[in-house]
């Protein structure tokens, strides 16, 4: 095997594909990237950790066809540091040589026959969504998934496809993020499945919101889902289990409504967060009164910090506390100039929405102090 390609093309594809390479594999080949030439002008890169697999194709100048497997981490590290704009890769015996601008690297290879190549499964259900739509659905929800592997269904984002609509929901049982949008095509029936949060983070790294008309084709067969777009193919096993009835935790009515400037709230939370990290539960306190919100955090060992934020308040005064991450995380993804915070009492969750936007809801439960 021998081919030449642009360094930028190779590094971009490798950076994405390598996300599916296993870090501590049972079998060493799962830590590698499978490289296979396709015709005279293309090469395909694959990585597969047996839960998620990623493939990407790049244009190259193929002189000699072939296939091999090399360590994903080492391949990417050396490709990034090659001095020239083009790289020539040559496979001889059990070594893949990388040459660029006088620099030379030899990487030992693994047997490509041992690599679990991505197999095209039969997936009869198809959904089409624009790249920026899927990117936004992931961005607005994936941060709310759980890290607790003992409850797998909470470590993913639940997707519901219904007619022309798509809804994404994530929760770790203490907070919930919901985002809705339109599909590019009506899918007819109702389909619902959970995609791993890690897979979605990997996928979002390749989704460019500037590709306004680019379409992602999502295929589903009850056990796996596949995402295809722009010379990229990602397949993953769905998470088995019943996603909880999330609608029950979204408050239908609220007695206290607070409209606040997003940037001012974000800055106040950022300022106080340094002190909240010194508390046992990373707690931040909202003291809501007629003239606004006083945001504070106090640590018996370190001290205290506070900052006021002006707000339009409709309802009675309230003092309520939250894990600071549950507030700062949502402030990273909202885009509206204003936010609406809705409360009932100090023990009930807050509902966060963007005024005039029915496609996004965030819920966070308070810390009992």
Unreliable spans are none
Number of domains: 3
Helical fraction: 10-25%
Strand content: over 45%
Q: Which topology of the largest domain does CATH recognise?
A: DNA Polymerase III, Chain A, domain 2
- Named at the architecture level, the CATH assignment of the largest domain is Roll
* Cα gyration radius (Å): 24 Å
Number of helices: 6
Through-space gap between termini: 65 Å
Biggest beta-sheet profile: 13 strands, antiparallel
SSE class: alpha+beta
Strand order of the largest sheet: 5-1-7-8-9-6-2-3-4-17-16-15-10
The CATH C-level name of the largest domain is: Alpha Beta
From the spread of the alpha carbons, the general shape counts as elongated
Kindly state the mean pLDDT as a whole number? 95
The fourth-level CATH homologous superfamily of the largest domain is: DNA Polymerase III, subunit A, domain 2
How many β-strand runs? 25
Give an account of the 3D structure.
The protein is α+β, with helices and mostly antiparallel strands and 369 residues long. It has three domains: 2-114, DNA Polymerase III, Chain A, domain 2 (Roll), CATH 3.10.150.10; 125-247, DNA Polymerase III, subunit A, domain 2 (DNA Polymerase III, Chain A, domain 2); 254-364, Roll (DNA Polymerase III, Chain A, domain 2), CATH 3.10.150.10. It contains six helices and 25 strands. The protein has helices at 7-17, 72-80, 131-139, 197-204, 262-276, 324-331; strands at residues 2-6, 32-38, 42-48, 52-59, 61-64, 67-71, 86-92, 95-100, 103-110, 125-130, 156-162, 165-171, 175-182, 190-196, 215-220, 224-229, 232-237, 256-261, 283-289, 292-299, 303-314, 318-323, 338-343, 350-354, 357-364. The strands form two sheets. It has a 13-stranded antiparallel sheet. The chain has a twelve-stranded antiparallel sheet with strand order 14-11-12-13-25-24-23-18-21-20-19-22. A hairpin with a 2-residue loop joins strand 7 and strand 8 (95-100). Helix 1 runs antiparallel to helix 2 and helix 5 runs antiparallel to helix 6 (324-331). The protein is elongated. It starts with a strand and ends in a 5-residue tail after the last strand.
């Amino acid at each position: 095997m021998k081919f030449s390609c642009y360094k930028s093309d190779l590094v971009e594809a490798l950076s994405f594909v390598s996300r599916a390479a296993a870090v501590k594999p049972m079998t060493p080949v799962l830590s590698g990237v499978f490289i296979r030439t396709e015709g005279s002008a293309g090469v395909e890169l694959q990585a597969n950790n047996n839960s998620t697999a990623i493939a990407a194709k790049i244009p190259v100048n193929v002189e000699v066809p072939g296939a091999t497997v090399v360590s994903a981490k080492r391949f990417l590290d050396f490709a990034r540091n090659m001095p020239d704009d083009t790289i020539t890769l040559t496979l001889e015996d059990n070594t893949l040589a990388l040459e660029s601008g006088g620099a030379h690297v030899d990487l030992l290879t693994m047997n490509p026959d041992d690599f679990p190549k991505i197999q095209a499964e039969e997936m009869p259900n198809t959904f089409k969504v624009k790249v920026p739509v899927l990117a936004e659905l992931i961005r607005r929800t994936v941060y709310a998934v759980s890290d607790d592997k003992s409850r797998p269904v909470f470590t993913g984002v639940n997707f519901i496809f219904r007619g022309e609509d798509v809804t994404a929901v994530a929760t770790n049982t203490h907070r919930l993020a919901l985002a809705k949008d339109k599909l590019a095509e009506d899918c007819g029936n109702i389909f619902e499945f959970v995609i791993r949060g890690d897979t979605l983070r990997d996928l979002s790294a390749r989704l460019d919101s500037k590709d306004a008309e680019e379409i992602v084709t999502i295929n589903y067969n009850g056990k796996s889902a596949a995402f295809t777009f722009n010379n990229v193919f990602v397949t993953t096993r769905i998470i088995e289990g019943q996603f909880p009835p999330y609608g029950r935790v979204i408050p239908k009515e609220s007695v206290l409504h607070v409209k606040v400037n997003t940037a001012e709230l974000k800055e106040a939370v950022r300022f106080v967060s340094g002190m909240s990290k010194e508390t046992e539960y990373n707690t931040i306190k909202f003291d809501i009164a007629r003239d606004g919100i006083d945001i504070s955090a106090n640590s018996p060992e370190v001290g205290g910090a506070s900052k006021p934020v002006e707000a339009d308040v409709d309802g009675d005064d309230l003092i309520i506390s939250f894990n600071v991450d549950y507030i700062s995380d949502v402030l990273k993804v909202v885009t509206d100039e204003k936010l609406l915070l809705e409360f009932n009492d100090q023990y009930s969750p807050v509902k966060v929405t963007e005024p005039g936007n029915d496609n996004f809801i965030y819920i966070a439960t308070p810390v009992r102090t």
